[in-house]
Design goal:
The complex is a heterodimer of chains A (458) and B (420). Chain A is of the alpha+beta class and 458 residues long. Among the domains of chain A are: 84 residues, Uridine Diphospho-n-acetylenolpyruvylglucosamine Reductase, domain 2 (2-Layer Sandwich), CATH 3.30.43.10; 119 residues, Uridine Diphospho-n-acetylenolpyruvylglucosamine Reductase, domain 3; 110 residues, Alpha-Beta Plaits, CATH 3.30.70.3450. Helix content of chain A is 36%, strand content 21%. Chain A is built from 16 helices and 18 strands. In chain A, the strands form four sheets. In chain A, strands 15-12-14-13-17-18-16 form a seven-stranded antiparallel sheet, with helices on both faces. A five-stranded antiparallel sheet of chain A has the order 5-6-10-8-9. In chain A, strands 1-2-4-3 form a four-stranded mixed sheet. In chain A, helix 1 packs antiparallel against helix 3, helix 8 runs antiparallel to helix 13 and helix 9 crosses helix 11. Helix content of chain B is 52%, strand content 8%. A five-stranded mixed sheet of chain B has the order 1-3-2-4-5. Chain B has a four-stranded parallel sheet with strand order 7-6-8-9, with helices on both faces. Chain B is globular and about 70 Å long. The chains are: A alpha+beta (458), B alpha/beta (420). At the A-B interface, helix 2, helix 9 and helix 12 of A face helix 2 and helix 3 of B.
Chain lengths: 458, 420
């Protein structure tokens, strides 16, 4: 098998030595690890298909991987399986200015897509926290969100078409450059967020937008989480949909500031980072109204970014929040619960109560405007008693999320980490449907088996 | 935490695209060994030595992972187990790390012999006659990198006590380094001058020891501790307002004497006092509000600043050298692409990993030339030599110089125009 892979890809693109493959055993969260038998780097779709066919003949599981920055264990290998790493496929194939699209290979870095669009005077909005190293293939597989989700949506909203290698090694193209298209089932959507369990995305046709003419970033501080949450509700109800409406609590503010040194106020209990974009007149008007709403709802300070550079620095600092929280304790357990926005203040209070009750340190930040929270438990995996309390706290947070009509994951995916919680979130019939789809598209259960749902019984 | 935010900033990951050649991958390997899932193999040892130790990852890391400490420990483990041991490597390390760089007088004597060889024309003659071809291969390849030794070392250029000009406001100690002393004693002299010019009385102890940075960065922690203890025996940090280093690589190590000797009750406190007072020269000058030299007639020069890894990533000193350069008369400060990316010198990396070092060097020199600068300022002897060699090979001759030398020259010009 290894020999065949070597002759297919060239020996330098097949790694099997322990020192070579162990570093591919993780994803971004580092909590779970497995050792693959081989890590392979295909150069094009043909090679991806060849690998899938080979693995199918030998009944070897294949886990696709971009840069390994996922946060739910989606790209953690299967022990003894093959890791199919798409990072060599990193060509931007075409930018079509007449149709506002960009076609890229799956291994292109998200930041490079943003930059290429920007250079063409266009705009690719999805901006996950890891965009400086994450790949578009990974973003599609996880349906990644980001800071601009509130106004612009998530990766799904920008995928017009894709090339997918299926479990039998055949290759299909789904979608096109048409704005409207209702021919047949919406198969494209099936693969977005499927975490590599249904097929391997090798090319993506992305939708681009005109670049907003103006932007304004505001920074509001609060003495309590409640007043920050109330401000968010007021902004949405007024109704204004800013591009970004981010929240950081005191712990997160301090960790981010310690790293990024962008001048965040260390004494604030809560902070809102708001960005509005669009026509200059609309931006000026929205910024003024947001500032007024924040002051009316008890903001201690409201500041405006002086220029685009300062705004970009603030957004970059915010993207480091999850990693920066690792400064406090050795283990960080990041959650991704999302609730309807009307329930936000209640959910925040509930998380604070849970932390107090279980004597845990929980930092919360997130995309407040989306109702998407990242409560992050700061703990130490070597402390068994504390880890038990962590489990109890997580169960309660998930249960409360369900009660409020929310979802266990807003943008990180299910992977390995949230399989159990997914089962609880879905009703019997919906959960069965997941299994039926998996069995239909991957009857041998070789594509990223054991992720999202339990492995298919064969 | 395995977020991968360091990957785009890692020069070796960018070279190969392989996870093991990244900080995250190397930490995964270290963790694998700690967890008993991997052997500490020759492959592992090779990977630890493939790392530049440039610490770009440390600047990029939101989580504050102390990669320098992890790498030094891993390299120490590699040496303890003799994983890379060969007779040749053992011989080289015996002469350098365990020989010359533990014996300051011997090092200077060797420097003088090398100087004699160079000044007498023997070096160029032997190069011309092709005698270097008779050397064993590793020496032959390293021979062109031999730096030019200065005629006078620091002790002959700087008095043991340099009085402050215009009233003493601070009392500082100047560390003269090893390579800096042999190859760039003019930088040490300039450092003493600019300190004196800014109200510092400068104490420069004679025949200083190596600071141990070379040892710590190359897995010889015990030797590094021995050298740190020697420094602390010779120098009482409490007697000075600051201890000044002007070499990025040394400063990055010198700052951490507190951690290096944390377990040694006899030295712990003194080491902590040392670390509190340790300052990079640019950092100190900005801290005390250095005086900008005046020269209305100064010709305009385009200057770019290449950041020594261990100064910007290791010590977080990045703004101050630019502030210093920006204050010089006639200087137009221009930025070059990837100014914070390693030039490939990385201590002895250009000797241990010549291929990668050369690629990084060529890229660096390209960026520096593209900036259109006539002067390249940098504050670490390794970078200085690496960039100088790279420019020579490219057939281009912008001046490479330590920022402090430019400042000292400006003060000197000022004095020449208006004698006291």
């Amino acid at each position: 098998m290894i020999e065949e892979l070597r002759s297919l890809l060239g020996p330098e693109h097949v790694l099997t030595e322990p020192e070579d493959v162990v570093p591919y055993g993780f994803d971004g969260a580092a909590a779970l690890k497995q050792r693959p038998a081989a890590v392979v780097f295909p150069a094009d779709t043909g090679e991806v298909a060849g690998i899938v066919k080979l693995c199918r003949e030998r009944r070897v599981p294949v886990v696709s991987r971009g840069s390994g920055t996922g946060l739910s264990g989606g790209s953690v290998p299967v022990a003894g399986g093959v890791v199919l790493c798409l990072q060599r496929m990193k060509r931007i194939l075409a930018i079509d200015r007449r149709n506002l699209t960009m076609e890229v290979e799956a291994g292109v870095i998200t930041q490079d897509i943003f930059a290429a669009a920007d250079e063409a005077g266009l705009f690719y909005p999805p901006d996950p926290g890891s965009m400086k190293i994450s790949t578009i293939g990974g973003n599609v597989a996880e349906n990644s969100g980001g800071l601009r989700g509130l106004k612009y949506g998530v990766t799904r909203d920008y995928v017009m078409g894709m090339e997918v290698v299926l479990a039998d090694g055949s290759t299909c193209w789904l979608g096109n450059k048409c704005v409207k298209d209702v021919a047949g089932y919406n198969l494209r959507d099936l693969f977005i967020g499927s975490e590599g369990t249904l097929g391997i995305v090798t090319r993506v046709l992305l939708k681009l937008l005109p670049k907003p003419a103006a932007r304004q970033t505001l920074l509001a501080t609060f003495e309590a989480m409640d007043t920050a949450a109330a401000t968010v509700s007021a902004i949405i109800a007024s109704p204004i949909i800013p591009c970004t409406l981010e929240f950081l609590d005191r712990r997160t503010i301090r960790c981010v500031e310690e790293f990024a040194k962008v001048g965040l106020p260390g004494d604030a209990e809560a902070l809102l980072l708001v960005e509005t974009d669009g026509h200059p007149a609309a931006v000026a008007d929205e910024a003024a109204r947001i500032e007024q709403l924040a002051r009316e709802h008890g903001a201690t300070t409201v500041a405006r970014a002086a220029d685009a550079e300062e705004a970009a620095r603030l957004a970059t600092a915010r993207r480091s929040a999850f990693s920066a929280l690792a400064r406090i304790r050795p283990t960080t357990i990041l959650e991704d619960v999302t609730v309807p926005r009307s329930e936000l203040a209640g959910m925040i209070r509930f998380i604070e109560e849970v932390a107090a009750r279980h004597q845990l340190e929980i930092a919360t930040f997130g995309h407040f405007g989306d109702g998407n929270l990242h409560p992050t438990i700061l703990t130490d995996e070597r402390n068994a008693a504390e880890m038990h309390r962590v489990e109890l706290a997580l169960e309660e947070i998930f249960a409360q999320t369900m009660k409020l009509g929310g979802t266990i994951t807003g943008e990180h995916g299910v992977g390995l980490a949230k399989k159990q919680a997914l089962r609880e979130q879905f009703d019997e019939a919906s959960y069965r449907l997941l299994g039926m789809i998996k069995r239909t598209l991957d009857p041998d259960g070789l594509l990223n088996p054991g992720k999202i749902i339990e492995p298919v019984e064969s | 935490m395995h977020c991968g935010m360091c990957l785009p900033d890692c020069p070796t990951y960018n070279e190969t695209g392989r996870e093991r050649n990244s900080p995250r991958g190397r930490i995964a390997l270290m963790r694998g060994i700690a967890d008993g899932e991997l052997e500490a193999s020759r492959e592992f040892a090779g990977e630890m030595s493939y790392c530049l130790g440039c610490l770009a990852c440390t600047s990029a890391c939101p989580a504050g992972v102390d990669y320098a400490h992890l790498l030094e420990s891993a390299r120490a483990e590699v040496e303890d187990r003799g994983l890379l041991d060969t007779p040749w490597r053992r011989a080289v390390r015996a002469v350098t790390i365990h020989g010359l760089f533990l014996r300051p007088r011997l090092l200077r004597a060797a420097g003088r012999m090398l100087r004699l060889w160079q000044a007498s024309g023997m070096q160029s003659a032997s190069r011309r006659l092709g005698l270097v071809r008779l050397l064993p291969r590793p020496l032959r390849e390293a021979e062109p990198l031999t730096p030019e030794i200065q005629a006078r070392f620091s002790d002959e250029r700087i008095e043991e006590i340099t009085p402050a000009r215009g009233g003493r406001r601070h009392r500082v100690l100047l560390l003269t380094g090893c390579v800096q002393d042999l190859v760039f004693s003019d930088v040490n002299q300039a450092t003493a001058e600019v300190l004196a010019e800014n109200g510092c009385e400068v104490v420069t102890p004679r025949t200083q020891d190596c600071c141990g940075s070379l040892h710590a960065h190359n897995g010889e922690i015990e030797a590094a501790k021995r050298l740190a203890r020697r420094q602390l025996d010779a120098i009482d940090p409490e007697s000075y307002d600051a201890i000044i280093s002007n070499a990025g690589g040394c400063g990055s190590h010198l700052r951490h004497y507190d951690r290096l000797l944390a377990e040694e009750p006899q030295y712990r406190e003194r080491a902590a006092a040392w670390s509190r007072r340790l300052r990079d020269i640019h950092e100190w000058l900005v801290e005390i509000g250095f005086r900008a030299p005046l020269d209305p007639a100064a010709a305009v020069r385009r200057v770019t600043y290449h950041e020594s890894c261990h100064l910007c990533h290791g010590q977080g000193v990045s703004r101050q050298p630019r502030e210093l350069l920006g204050a010089l008369p006639g200087v137009e400060l221009v930025e070059s692409a990837d100014a914070t990316t390693c030039c490939g010198s990385a201590g002895i990396y250009n000797l241990t990993q010549p291929e990668t070092a050369t690629r990084l060097q060529q890229r660096k020199v390209g960026h520096l030339l593209d900036s259109g600068a006539e002067v390249i300022a940098t504050a670490n002897p390794g970078c200085h030599l690496q960039i100088g060699n790279g420019l020579r090979e490219a057939g281009r001759q912008p001046r490479v110089v330590h920022p402090v030398v430019l400042l000292a020259e400006a003060y000197r010009r000022e004095r020449e125009r208006a004698p006291e």
